[in-house]
Amino acid sequence: MTTTFASLGVPDALVKALAAQGKTEPFPIQAATLGNTLDGDDVLGRGKTGSGKTLAFSIPLVAGLREIGVTTRPGRPTGLVLAPTRELATQIADTVTPLAQAMGLSVTTVFGGVKQARQEQAFRRGVDIVVACPGRLDDLMKQGIVKLDDVEITVLDEADHMADLGFLPVVTRILSATPDDGQRLLFSATLDNGVDKLVRKFLHDPVTHSVDEANSPVAKMTHHVFESANAADKHALVRELASGTGRRILFTRTKHQAKKLARKLTAEGIPAVDLHGNLSQNQRDRNLAAFGGDGARVLVATDVAARGVHVDGVELVVHVDPPAEHKAYLHRSGRTARAGEAGDVVTVCLPEQRGDLRKLLRSAKIDVKPQLVTAKSESVDKLVGPRAEWVEPAPAPAPATQSSGGRGRSGGRGRGGQNNGGGASGRARSRNQGNGNRSSGSASRGGHGGGNRSGGARRGNRQRAAV
């Protein structure tokens, strides 16, 4: 029998909201965890990137708060989601918001890199669910702008990445400010670097669900290693890999390399945008909107994008520079082959990188043989498939008009149409076409019984009508 959201006990209003998005059947991590999370249990969920974790905690977060009957109060949210990066926080909020609206709840995001005035205003008005990065939330707590005494349900997403970024002390302070009897859901690919200590300290008798082996590759992801003889051949290869019609993400090790490569590709007729830590939030939003829309089909990113960016239909991930360690490789690669879709991952290397790359792939449990290729190789042509039209870079801005009374200053020079804000646009010309074409078990539960769960007695099963 097919498992549905309704059969797992998801409220009708949320079932309808999910159906409106074309979501009628849960992924394994959702089917495995929803029975417990909807009952109010603390849950430790382990699943690799792209497995559907965001929806797995968004549904019980919204359903639980509505069932409790929370009251919106200024500066006192009742639902809290912690995420390691602002990109991920934004993506989570995009998933939670339509579900929250279906249940009459409000959502706001809190992260650094932007002025906090708007965040202060949201708290003054009163908000039910906060999706936050630890640093800015900690600042607002110290300023007395937000208090977490009323938080009923707390979610930690990508807890292992928070540990990698050194956020655990701040996360510990934040969790300590929430009521001890609130429900807590923690999702993490691994339990190393102190994540296990968070579990022991803050989760009470958690139910553990693991639908994938930690740090395991995705079954529908095809891995390739393309070796270039020299740096010039490597650039030509990367350009060819970027030239296809579908969306692709190219990863570099440094912010400078990401910016430089995006500009170079755009100047060569392949609209590209960059994503890295030097961009303002507005620039990040603009570039992601361009990549998710029609402005650019290539995103050149540092590891900042490996966790926090989910854009549908990314068909290819290219490691322009192999990452330093295998977890970064898996998280980068996880931008494709998401939610059951297929995708390809290419690692480009030079001869001197061969040994280190072999060790990295062994740690990532990836078995793939390197191929010595050029941009014209048949295997490259087959992987890239049909090429997109050549797009003429936008012209440089016209110089500013000088005033008649003094010496004017000329306008800035454009750089190939890519200036941290969407892909180049202009006259399209035909480019030569290539010849290529391009889980574990789940637990389902019906109605769930149990004791009532209210604001005064948070822990324990929540009583819900049988489905």
UniProtKB/TrEMBL annotation:
Residues 3-31 form the DEAD-box RNA helicase Q domain. GO terms for molecular function: ATP binding; hydrolase activity; nucleic acid binding; RNA helicase activity. Keywords: ATP-binding, Helicase, Hydrolase, Nucleotide-binding. The keyword Methyltransferase does not apply. GO terms for cellular component: cytosol. It holds the Pfam family Helicase_C. It comes from the Bacteria. SUPFAM superfamilies: P-loop containing nucleoside triphosphate hydrolases (SSF52540). The keyword Hydrolase applies. InterPro entries: DEAD/DEAH_box_helicase_dom, DEAD/DEAH_RhlB, DEAD_box_RNA_helicase, Helicase_ATP-bd, Helicase_C-like, P-loop_NTPase, RNA_helicase_DEAD_Q_motif. A motif (Q motif) lies at residues 3-31. Residues 34-209 form the Helicase ATP-binding domain. Residues 237-380 form the Helicase C-terminal domain. Residues 386-467 are annotated as: Disordered. Residues 431-443 have a biased composition (Low complexity). Residues 405-425, 444-458 have a biased composition (Gly residues). Belongs to the DEAD box helicase family. This is Putative ATP-dependent RNA helicase. The lineage of its organism: Bacteria, Bacillati, Actinomycetota, Actinomycetes, Mycobacteriales.
